[in-house]
Structures are given as C-alpha cells and as structure tokens.
Design goal:
The protein has one domain: Beta Polymerase, domain 2, CATH 3.30.460.10. The chain is about 30% helix and about 20% strand. It has 4 helices and 7 strands, in the order ββαββαβββαα.
C-alpha cells in the first residue's frame, strides 16, 4: 500500500485520529503477549517520516509472530492498515510501518545489535502504560486494648 503525503508527512492510507493512543494500544498488545523491554519513542519533531517507534523484544520466533499477529489483527479491526511490513517470515526483526508509527519487534540479539534506543537517544520516551492508581493510605484501625 503506498503512503500518502499530507502536510509534508507520510500517512497511513486510513488516517489515524490519535496516533499516541494507537501506539499505547500496540504496546499493550505486545505486553499481553509477554514481550519484554517495551518502549515507545516519541519522534515528533525529530524525524520526518514517522511520529513514534514502538520497540519490543520476543524471546523466540513463535512469540515474535504472536506479537505481530495480535498487533496486525487489532489494527485491521480499527481500519488501520500498514504501509509495509518486513521480516514477518524471519525470526530476528519484524518491522510494521503504519506511517504515523512504526512497530519494531526484535529477538534479543538483534535488538542489541541494532540498538535503536541508542540511535534515537535524543527521542523522549513516551509513557504507554496506564499510570498506576494511587492507593489511599487509610489508617488501619488499632485493635482494642485489653484492660
């Protein structure tokens, strides 16, 4: 599927209303499939071709495929189609390009080799996890004292 230029940036064929929310969904799906070291880099203002990288690791080819399938299925249900995918038949690095965001799924060795976090070290990390709920610090009642 060819990319569409709009305002100087590549876009998916179906516009994503809120790319930030969609990358959170992708990261959560990877987390649901037990991906490790999930990070999202916010590339807005740093890169011309995309706004976010979702980067995650899978321990084996089967896990990488499961993560890729879960993300692909959810994005398809939302009407978001990739511009391109690479490495889906391999077992080291899967790249899913959705225009506004790119998902990188690595085996641990490839992740260390390509080290996108170092390459894009100036990019801020984007918080994808739901903020933890604050627990109330209610005082526990004291037991009655014996007389």
């Amino acid at each position: 599927m060819a990319s569409v230029r709009s305002g100087g940036r590549r876009k998916t064929a179906v516009a994503v209303k809120d790319p930030a929310e969609v990358v959170r969904v992708c990261a959560r799906l990877a987390d649901d499939k037990k991906a490790e070291d999930i990070i999202v880099l916010d590339l807005r203002g740093l890169m011309y071709v995309t706004d976010f990288f979702v980067i995650a690791s899978g321990g084996n080819p089967r896990q990488l495929h499961a993560i890729q399938s879960a993300i692909h299925q959810e994005m398809s249900q939302r009407g978001v189609r990739p511009i391109g995918q690479e490495g889906t038949g391999q077992d080291r690095w899967v790249l899913m390009d959705y225009g506004d965001f790119v998902v990188h799924l690595f085996d641990p060795d490839s992740r260390r080799l390509y080290d996108l976090e170092l390459l894009w070290g100036d990019a801020p990390r984007f918080e994808w996890q739901t903020p933890p709920k604050k627990r109330s610090r209610a005082k526990t009642p004291k037991p009655p004292q014996a007389e």
